[in-house]
């Protein structure tokens, strides 16, 4: 085996988004040596795109808010298949993590008396999202990055990890390559934290960036960890559908929180037509009350546009299917209408939603203070991911931890907006803390040189196949398959068809050709990502087939209702013998009585 450059860190964190940075900060704070690897430049992780805010029950805008209401909202939003312990820890610790971010220098919008301002978001009973206009992710990354680099974390930018290294069952490092020059590197570590984000690039229409190719999910799966709830993909209801220059780009839920309304081509606010029973008591039944809620009237109930994302997405799909959609296959989202209610509406919109205003003005020549947007569901977030212990974030493999979007459990069948940024802070911290503890208690393991040689050989094989297919074409075909056959509305026959297509895409991917050399070669990067995308696409499809019911983000046309059999189980996927993907249903841990009471009291 060639003598690859080798780095040694007590804790290696893979991913420099909110979760990875928070984990790295926590680990280095207790005195262990930390390495941080990321595919792009530091500060460019996907977290930077987050807009609306961080959900935490600070109670600054409505003093009735507290961790119990946040917990109950999260469980209801997740349709009660969340790992209750994660939802509890998250609700209890999110407020402290936000205050800590503030102490580290994060700027937030403020209430009149100087507290962190909180805004309305779907599924949250009270205004709960701490924010900076609609650029919250940027501020979060900036703050964590500033704080982290001063703690002496070693950063390996523009590196992609291809494989986790094992000594027996234990994880002892990772193997990857430097994207610029294509050179392989070994990262020895006593503990590894996966914080690689999501999978949106498995679908054709997505709000996610190029980095979201499910790498952490696939790395964990290949190493022998379990994936949980992969069927639950969040299709955010309001991605732009027109013009093509902005297709898929997200319109933050903050637009609806600040008074934006959804209408069909008849001008009807169709969300009033379908309010689920378990949200009726909390939802306005007339437009006037909905507007008062957005203006901060504590006696008003929230408008139905702020129902959970799974439900709003399905209502939009229904309007489009039944012929009441907008000209380009969406519905209308309009914030400009508020000029009927306030004299300085344009200024208000520009102040509350500066990125939305500038982005769509510049990229699409749409002035959101004057006209409606055409929107439809876009693949946004995966609730499923690496199965971890709720307190320590460790997987079933000793030394392997996971946090952020690539880990799973807190959100159940549907994530409430804002609960991701708080998840990154709460569980990023915990992953860093427990990874550091593990590193202190264990020595470096032995590196398996044969395993490394195999990964390096496989990674270079595409260069030898000059007459094979272009990997972009295969990626494109996979995205179309997932979009058309495992999208918002699912059926058994279509998903079986998807599985067989994924199988043949795997054969095509194995024979793909990469031209040129290893120096910054996007074709090669695509071929390497493709392997992960194919693995997670199969996991999503198999889990969606196994859950024969509709719940949260999973809508099965052939099983349109919730089923008792699936009300207390998670789907678990793992790699079996001879590389075959295995799946089982696993009962959720029984929720303790004190939490059942919290849910009842906050129904
Ligand atoms: C447009 C948009 C707006 C959003 N707004 C909000 C919001 O307002 N509130 C909210 O709570 N959530 C929001 N979300 C969701 C939220 O932003 C994400 O879920 C969250 O940022 C994920 O953070 P992370 O730390 O898990 O991963 P990321 O921030 O995506 O970071 C992943 C990191 O892993 C690295 N990586 C990946 N694979 C590899 C590999 N193989 N080797 C090395 N490094 C690797 C990447 O380079 C990157 O550094 C939004 C999402 C989008 C798309």
What's the gist of this structure?
The protein is of the alpha/beta class. The chain has helices at 18-29, 67-77, 84-103, 136-149, 215-223, 254-257, 277-280, 287-294, 309-321, 345-352, 354-364, 419-441, 449-460, 471-485, 492-510, 522-546, 593-601, and strands spanning 5-14, 34-37, 54-55, 118-119, 129-130, 154-156, 159-167, 170-178, 184-194, 227-228, 233-240, 261-263, 331-334, 373-382, 385-387, 400-402, 407-408, 489-490, 555-556, 569-575, 581-587. Strand 7 and strand 8 form a beta hairpin.
Strand elements, count: 21
Summed over residues and divided by their number, the pLDDT gives a mean of: 95
Bound molecules: flavin-adenine dinucleotide
Major sheet: size, sense and barrel closure?
Answer: 7 strands, mixed
Radius of gyration: 23 Å
What is the structural class?
A: alpha/beta
Helix proportion: 25-40%
* Count of individual helical segments: 17
Shape type: globular
Distance between the termini: 61 Å
Strand content: 15-25%
Low-pLDDT stretches: none
How would you characterize the overall build of this protein?
- The protein is an alpha/beta fold.
- The protein contains 17 helices and 21 strands.
- It has helices spanning 18-29, 67-77, 84-103, 136-149, 215-223, 254-257, 277-280, 287-294, 309-321, 345-352, 354-364, 419-441, 449-460, 471-485, 492-510, 522-546, 593-601; strands spanning 5-14, 34-37, 54-55, 118-119, 129-130, 154-156, 159-167, 170-178, 184-194, 227-228, 233-240, 261-263, 331-334, 373-382, 385-387, 400-402, 407-408, 489-490, 555-556, 569-575, 581-587.
- Strands 1, 2, 6, 7, 8, 9 and 16 form a 7-stranded mixed beta sheet that branches.
- Strand 1, helix 1 (18-29) and strand 2 (34-37) form a beta-alpha-beta unit.
- The site of flavin-adenine dinucleotide has 43 residues, from helix 1, helix 4, strand 7 and helix 12.
């Amino acid at each position: 085996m060639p003598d690859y450059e080798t780095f040694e860190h007590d804790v290696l964190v893979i991913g420099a988004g909110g979760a990875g940075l928070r984990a790295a900060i926590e680990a280095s704070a207790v005195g262990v040596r930390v390495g941080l690897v990321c595919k792009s430049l530091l500060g460019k992780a996907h977290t930077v795109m987050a807009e609306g805010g961080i959900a935490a029950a600070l109670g600054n805008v409505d003093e009735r808010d507290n961790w119990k209401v946040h917990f109950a909202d999260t469980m209801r939003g997740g349709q009660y298949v969340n790992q209750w312990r994660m939802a509890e820890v998250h609700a209890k610790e999110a407020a402290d993590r936000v205050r800590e971010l503030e102490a580290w220098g994060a700027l937030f919008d403020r209430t009149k008396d100087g507290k962190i301002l909180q805004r309305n978001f779907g599924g949250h009973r009270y205004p709960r999202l701490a924010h900076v206009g609609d650029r919250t992710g940027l501020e979060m990354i900036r703050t964590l990055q500033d704080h982290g680099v001063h703690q002496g974390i070693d950063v390996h930018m523009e590196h992609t990890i291809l494989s986790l290294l094992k000594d027996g069952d234990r994880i002892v490092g990772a193997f990857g390559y430097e994207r610029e020059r294509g050179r392989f590197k070994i990262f020895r570590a006593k503990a590894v934290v996966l914080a690689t984000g999501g999978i949106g690039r498995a679908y054709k229409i997505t709000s996610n960036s190029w980095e979201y190719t499910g790498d952490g999910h696939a790395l964990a799966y290949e190493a022998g960890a379990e994936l949980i709830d992969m069927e639950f993909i969040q299709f955010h209801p309001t991605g732009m559908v027109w013009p093509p220059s902005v297709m898929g780009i997200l319109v933050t839920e903050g637009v609806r929180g600040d008074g934006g309304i959804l209408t069909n081509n008849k001008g009807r606010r169709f969300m009033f037509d379908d309010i689920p029973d378990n949200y009726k008591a909390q939802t306005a039944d007339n437009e006037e009350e909905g507007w008062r809620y957005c203006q901060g009237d504590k006696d008003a109930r929230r408008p139905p546009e702020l129902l959970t994302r799974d439900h709003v997405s399905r209502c939009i799909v229904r309007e489009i299917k039944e012929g009441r959609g907008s000209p380009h296959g969406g519905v209308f989202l309009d914030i400009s209408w508020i000029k009927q209610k306030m004299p300085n509406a344009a200024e208000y919109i520009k102040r509350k939603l500066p990125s939305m205003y500038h982005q769509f003005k510049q990229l699409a020549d749409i002035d959101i203070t004057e006209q409606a947007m055409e929107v439809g569901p876009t693949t946004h977030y995966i609730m499923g991911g690496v199965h971890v212990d709720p307190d320590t974030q460790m997987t079933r493999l000793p030394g392997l931890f996971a946090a952020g979007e690539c880990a799973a459990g807190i959100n159940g069948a549907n994530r409430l907006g804002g609960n991701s940024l708080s998840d990154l802070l709460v569980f990023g911290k915990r992953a860093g803390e427990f990874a550091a503890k593990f590193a202190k208690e264990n020595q470096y393991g032995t590196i398996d040189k044969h395993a490394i040689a195999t990964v390096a050989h496989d990674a270079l094989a595409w260069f030898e196949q000059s007459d094979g297919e272009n990997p972009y074409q295969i990626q494109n075909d996979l995205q179309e398959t997932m979009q058309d056959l495992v999208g918002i509305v699912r059926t058994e026959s279509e998903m079986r068809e998807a599985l067989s297509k994924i199988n043949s895409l795997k054969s095509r991917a194995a024979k793909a050709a990469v031209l040129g050399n290893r120096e910054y070669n996007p074709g090669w990067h695509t071929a390497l990502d493709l392997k992960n995308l194919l693995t997670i696409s199969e996991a999503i499809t198999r889990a969606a087939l196994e859950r024969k019911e509709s719940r949260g983000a999973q809508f099965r046309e052939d099983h349109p209702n919730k089923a008792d059999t699936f009300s207390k189980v998670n789907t678990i996927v793992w790699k079996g013998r001879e590389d075959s993907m295995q799946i089982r249903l696993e009962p959720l841990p029984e929720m303790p009585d004190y939490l059942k009471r919290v849910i009842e009291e906050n129904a």
